[in-house]
Structures are given as structure tokens and as C-alpha cells.
Amino acid sequence: MFAARRGLIKASFARVSAQRPVRSFTAAAVRFSSDHGNSEILQGPGGKPGRVPTNFEQSTGDERREYLAAMEGKEYFDLNPLELETKGTRQNPTIVPSGAAWRLVGCNGAPGEAHELMWIRVEREHGIDRCPECGNAFKL
After folding, report:
1. Structure pTM?
2. Which of 116, 120, 122, 119 is nearest to 139 (CA)?
3. Across the chain, how many H-helices and E-strands are there?
4. pLDDT in tens, 13-31
5. Are 107 and 120 in contact (CB under 8 A)?
């Protein structure tokens, strides 16, 4: 009796699994090596044999640039907040320095106007992006 039930259960699972459509998806975009520009590889000399390398010796990329700038007494990353003296308009927007195609900007009001912090994605291709709360205009 149990063998007959097992056979029925296996048959019903086989029918259900045969009817399911196959769905495929991808979680990452495909990028080819030809899509990247030729960029200089910036890396340290590495550790000497028999020694543990220091952070300076093994740093690469932006971390290495930050170490080199610190050795010259400069700051590689600008961590200071953007000071707003006037409200940005379409004719005279607030310039946000960035080397990237977009940057997140937190606006908590133009001078003399205060509102809750609003995060705005300022994009280079948009030209000008505005704060939906106070209307302050930003440009990369």
C-alpha cells in the first residue's frame, strides 16, 4: 500500500516539475576588457622577502594616492562640507566638485531657509539638479 502511494506521489511531482517553465536571470552586467580605458596601475613596491609589508608598501589605487598626497602634506580626498553662501539658481548654480559622472549631495536648505536633510543625486548629464524642498540648484 505504501509502495503504491509512493508511486503516485513520485508521478505527481514529476508532472508538476515538468510543467514549470524555466526562468533565467542575470545578476550582473557583462563588461568586456575593451570597455575599460587604459588606466595606469598604481601600486607600491611590495614587501621585501622575509618581512611583513607595511600599508604603504602594499597599497594600491586610491589608497596609494592618498598616502602619496599625505607625504606631500596635501589631502587627496576633500572631506570638508560644501559651504553655501547664496542660493543656487539656474543662471548661477551651486558647483559641486567631482570627477565622477554623479554625486550624492545632502541639502538642508539654502542660506536663511532650513529644512530636513534631502539627498539629491546630482548627475553631470542632467546639467542642473534642484532640491525638491527649497529649489536650490546644483551642478557638477
Report:
1. 0.52
2. 122
3. 3, 5
4. 555 555 555 544 445 555 5
5. yes
